[in-house]
Design goal:
Layout (H helix, E strand, L loop, with lengths): L2 H27 L8 H5 L35 H5 L1
Length: 83
């Protein structure tokens, strides 16, 4: 056998495999909607600039974190305000 024959044979096999895998994928995912796992349901996504508010231990003062820090507008510089 020549090496070119072997290479062609390998190419054909790979092509067939690819076709099979593509078919499998489409059949599976057509009517499947991704659902959240238990872990994902429990985990709450933090918004940008949000700090965790610590729980108060008995008899101790607790510093509260400010929520939603990222939404404030930035002040314009003095030069820009004058113009």
């Amino acid at each position: 056998r020549r090496s070119s024959d072997l290479k062609e044979k390998i190419k054909k096999k790979k092509k067939e495999k690819r076709k099979k895998s593509e078919k499998k994928g489409t059949e599976k995912n057509e009517n499947k909607i991704r659902t959240k796992t238990k872990k994902e349901k429990k985990k709450k996504k933090k918004r940008k600039g949000e700090k965790k508010i610590r729980k108060k231990k008995e008899g101790k003062r607790v510093q509260k974190g400010t929520k939603r820090k990222g939404t404030k507008k930035k002040k314009k510089s003095k030069k820009k305000r004058k113009k």
